[in-house]
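Risk register update: the risk that structure generation would not scale has been downgraded. Supporting records follow, first protein first.
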Amino acid sequence: MAVAAWAASTSYTVGNIRRSTSALAIGVFFKCTTAGTSDSAEPNWPLSLGNTVTDNNVVWTTISSTYEELSVLAPSAIIELFELHLDATLHGSQSTMVYRWHNGVNAAVSGDIVWNSLTYSRQPITAEGFEYSSGGRALPRPRLKIGNVSDSSLGNYANVAEVSALLMLVNETTAGNDLGGATVKRIRTLKKYLDGESAADPNAQFPQEVWIVDRKSSENRVEVVFELASNFDLPGVELPRRQIVASVCQWAYKSSECSYTGSNYFDVNDNSVASAADDVCGKRVSSCKKRFGDNGELPYGGFPGAGVIK
């Protein structure tokens, strides 16, 4: 039976399990560990396993939506589903379509799979390289291999293998794109939670993984291989994005970052002046103190500590 959603002003007993009413808490449920009555407004659910939240006088603890089933001696098979979402700007008319696939391996499913009322077609597809390494700083760049087998029904490419036809079609919009920038969702659930099963539950799943197609690695008559990347994997981008300068404030004077709205005016050398027309910030810490006070909180846009520690 599917887990019910949280409800306001409802009595809960220890052991009750509920899910969030929104899609923000994917992959987790919440177990009542202190009985009581829920609040009139839904709490801000913690997403880390084991964390708790107080809901009026009810206490909820975050649990995995699949842990209980995986911990038994003979758990249900893990089903791996993939979704390919295109971008309207990059991929043209095909952007309205979402491609959904499964490989049918774990549960020996020979046909389509229906989960959460969505149909996933069986397709030769493998994915690897999702593991994060604690020793390295680089984010994983998984490889997605899709079988280039069935014929397409896409316009002028009806007799071309499906994935190659899709590449040709999107390249008509953006030359050489090869699905770059498309979104790949990796969804994992258990066979017992698929539609049609007695325990069907679209909310019982592992946390979803969202990846971006970075490039096409290879293509032949048998398969097409894509390299995926995280949204955070931005080559050449460093934190902080601003250049670290110790002695110069980088904010525009009286901008939202600067936030100065006072009526004390100073020139570029921090000398007091009478009119706003002569008011110019010297971009130094001393200029900031003139306006916000020696002991005030300074919204200084530089890095005065830079160079102090060697």
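Supporting record for the second protein:
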Amino acid sequence: MVMYVMSDLQFQAVYNVLSFALASMMATTMYLWFRSFAVTDKYKSAVLISGLVTFIAAYHYIRIFNSWVDAYHYPGPGHFVTTYADAKDTVGTQTWETTVVGGALEMGTPELTGIPFNDAYRYMDWLLTVPLLLIEILLVMDIDQATFNDKAWTLGVGSALMIASGYYGELVVTGDLTPRWMCWFLSMVFFLYIVYELLVGLADATNKETDPALKVKIGQAQVMTVISWCTYPVVYLFPMMGINAAHAIVGIQIGCCASDIISKCGVGLLIYQISYAKSAIVRAGIIKTKSADLESASEAFQAAQALKNKLAAEIAAAK
């Protein structure tokens, strides 16, 4: 694992973006899990899984954030300077030189601590969350159980292979980038297959939606997922574009965080909207059915009451 010197601006940019991504994941998790009680049992799994995705991501963002902080440290408000009386002296005199001037400390460049920044947490996160992301979309679509099982397995395995095949190349940022190119091409094969399945393979299921608004929202979830994922292969190419290592690392971290927020938080909230709307339709259908049953029961009761009155009158006349 090779570490690179960062400027103060570069370190703070990644620091703040990671912090924002972590807060977004945590907030979305709480919202989705609390709002899962607002949807019917049929669609509750989709909302709970959406919250699980952001929960897993929040955990890994804590690890990524801490790893980034541990990899660098800022110099203190001063340092010791050793001076020697002459070149032959082996023991010098240490004096403290402060960098605080007029009560203000000018921030310097963060220094490497020697602790490597572990970006593998991000790939471990994707390995768990990307298949779940695809499953949550399937759960709000009107497809039969056999189709669901088939799509869940193929998309889940395909996404896992996409992530696993790209990991090794992520470790190569400078020098001979051949391994990175090979991993990029291999990962893109699986990526394009998943995109095809989302936009073409599931097109019939999307078109079966009878409610136009729901059909649009499901299409938006599919397209939003694809567009956000398109960021990953682009930022993966940064080192191959001649961008220096430090700038490439910053660009990769910011790009991946932005994509994660869109694909996990944004799509998760959209899944909730779809689930809530479909739950409203289910509840409306239940109310309509129960109302019809109640009306039928009322008519039957009135008919029975009329028959009772008729028989009572006949008995009275017979007496």
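The chain has one domain: 8-74+115-283. On this basis the risk owner (M.S.) recommends closing the item.
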